[in-house]
Amino acid sequence: MSRPPPPRLEDFPGRVTEIVRYGDLDPQNHVNNAVFATFFESGRVTLFRDPANGLLVPGANFVLARSEIDFLRELRWPGTIEIGTGIAAIGRSSYTVVQAIFRDGLCAATGRATIVLIDDASRRPRPLPDDAVARLRQLTAHGA
Fold first, then answer.
1. Quick one: which of 42, 36, 48 has its CA closest to 111?
2. Of 26, 59, 60, 76, which one is least surrounded by beta carbons within 10 A?
3. Model pTM score
4. Spatial CA neighbour of 139 closest among 85, 72, 80
């Protein structure tokens, strides 16, 4: 079974640059697979917790409900990477994020995550406010 072509950084409305640290390496001398999850988290948090993006909801928080990563190539130290982040789908109380990690213009990994809005007091899902839905639509990834 063949894979679809990898995404391009230009496909994503949110972009963050991160430094690959020496401490990110594993015994095989490449970036450990768990660090990819941290890179994706950084991309999501930078975009979605920025007050300028209008996604913070008083009395509620967004939590990670599902995460998946497809590894396409190794990352090595030293260097920098770019993380692209965008929206693939919006539900009643959740949204799906698509992401990719790039090094020197090449896609090293793709990720997908489901984020759920929960009420701070009840810790139960609550509907996304209309203004948050409108803003999330503006962050749709190309081809999502």
1. 36
2. 59
3. 0.94
4. 85
Burial class (CB in 10 A: 0-12, 13-18, 19+), 14: buried
Domains in the chain and their CATH numbers? 9-138 (3.10.129.10)
String of b and e for 31-56 (b: at least 16 CB within 10 Å)?
beeebbbebbbbbbebbbeeeebebe
69-121 residue pLDDT tens: 999 999 999 999 999 999 999 999 999 999 999 999 999 999 999 999 999 99
- Peptide bond between residue 27 and the one before it cis (omega within 30 degrees of 0): no
The residue behind tokens 């693939």 is 88
Percent of the chain scored above 70 by pLDDT? 99
Query: Comparing C-alpha atoms, which of 9, 136, 143, 135 is closest to residue 81?
Result: 9
pLDDT confidence band for 57 (50 / 70 / 90): very high
